[in-house]
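Hey forum,

I'm writing up a methods section and want to include a predicted complex as supplementary material. The small molecule is fe (ii) ion. I've pasted the protein sequence and the SMILES. Can someone with a working setup run it? I'll credit the forum in the acknowledgements.
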Amino acid sequence: MIDLHCHILPSIDDGAKNTGISFEMLKEERKQGVKAITFTPHFNFNRIDVDDFVEVRQKSYDSLMAVPGVSDLGIKFKLGCEVYFSTKLNETELDPLCFEGTNYILIEFPTDQRPYGLRHTIVDILNRGYQPILAHVERYPYFTEDPQQLYDLIEKGCVAQINSGAILQGDKAALRYIRWGMAQLICTDAHNMKKRVPNLKEGMRFVKKKYGEEYVDWFEKNAVDVFKGRYVDEPMLKKPKKILGFWL
Ligand SMILES: [Fe+2]
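Reply by user p_vandermeer:
Happy to help. Structure tokens for the complex are below, copy them as they are.
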């Protein structure tokens, strides 16, 4: 398995506070069966510029790689980040923010209200040849209340990611997106070893039990494709239907 969204790099965001916690998280990922990880610390245009972020991220990465035992875990690593949505993305060189060596860029959105310029900015990113991965799509009320908006973005080429933790909590939106074929990646978004832990194995086990092995195969294949920078197969989208006021 591959984890493409996690906050394991030490002392860079609200994830692992130090290299000790990072190492514990990596050991847990390995125990869960994860063999490749993209590190995705938060990046926010309002807090830091891209060049400084890249420098800080490299320092954090180097400090983790210097920990004895990390390189013996048998996990492949790539650098990436989780960009907080901003219309500034339109005027920014995106390569340093993409998953290393790929055109995939992980983007999260505000959870309270739909941000101004969402569609325009995302379409612009797609037109520039990049592929936005929409982080934890189950969290945004403006998508859950009107899933056709998300459907439309996926149809245009975006990749939708859901959190393993949301699945395990029985989050209705997350499960509905799986059922509709609108979720293409499951990741941990792990932040620590207490509440937001590496839990990909449990998440996949849940999916296997509820939806069948072919769903797990589909999620795992998509993660490999993204990690390698290949196109993800087109999802078999089932257009959401609203009947008697309920999305079915
Ligand atoms: Fe995250």
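Some notes you might quote in the supplement: The mean pLDDT is 95. Residues 50-65 form the longest helix (16 residues).
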